[in-house]
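<tokenise_the_fold>
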Amino acid sequence: MLENVLEKFIDNLFLFITGKKKPNGCLLVKKHSDNLNTHGDISFPNTAKPWYGFLKCNSNEKNTLLENLNTSSLNLTNESRGWELQISKVTEDKERVYLFLDRSSAVRIGLLSALRNNNFISTRINVTVSTVSIDPACENTDCLTSLRVEYVKKTLANLCSVFEHPSSIVVSSKSSSNYTNSKRMLCGPVLNASTLVKEMTVTAKDLIKNRQEEMMSIAQHKYGVRISEDSKWKEFIDHLGESAVVFELLQTRPSSAVKINMNCSLMGSSKGASFILYNCARLETIIRTYNERISEGTYPSLPDFNETDFTLLTHEDEWYLIFNFILGLPSLLSSCVDLEGSKCEFKPHQICSFLCSMVRVFSQYYRKIRILTEPRKHLLPVMFARIHMLIILNDTLKTCLRILNIKSVSQM
């Protein structure tokens, strides 16, 4: 199963505070995603009231939580020495306690865990037989809502494979459909953005062709008009256009309606998908260029993971990428699936948001940092650490794309 070292840390923290196992869905301990350098990586309420029902001591509302527990930030830091992720600093105010993880050890732990997780997900998707199907009433039609049902079904099948959910699930756009032996996932319609009624005149082929033309227009603007005459470029643009449609139809909660506009100049509908794939290609190019320079004799071979000094990854964007996306992937995927009891809720749109955030931070990092430096001895160790990090970040990005059934690209 997926390793979730961040969730283990939160479980250990909850046990330290309450002496009890953290119940599912409890949100008292908060993982941060921004301002990590100033507000820490994790925080929790520093008053007793929110912890009512969990605390094992008599609480005084005038005291902070740590005072009520007869403990201190130093005790918490020392306790974490036995955890996989450790605390380097604790700050507090009247409202919250802020925890700063020991980045030097967390980076290595997070990268190593991600290596195993990406491999696990790939294996599960390859070998698992799907238990997700499409309502026959929604099959064999060329309408956009049926296309969305198909995309949702494929993504849910991949998520179920990752978490080994045996439940039989039927994806349908028909609210009247009922299946006694299966759970039902209701998929919202695709609406015309102008009329706000279900789109019935534009077919699936029409939308894909429209987005391919939009991608072609973007590429022609960037590379010149001759690319439309190149068969390889045309095949590549066709792939980008279809990927844009997948992303467009999945980036909204499945049960909600999706609005589409065929006027590319107004909407720029393919922008999200193209930016993600552009940065996927950028990562591939960095890694490929590094390997080419090894072959040329410019760079030495990349050292083994265990021989790499990851304490050199000190740039704030590097920690953002590792903490939020490499370490954060298991929590993201877990939040996308809820099949407890009679529930049947999936949130593949969260993967789309995750990818948009990831490539935005990576693009920002790429503009600031020269990754492939001169092959000088004192510059090589940090470059080695960055290449290892980017290989794992690239695999994490491609893992998410694969769950969405979007093929990654190696160049753009």
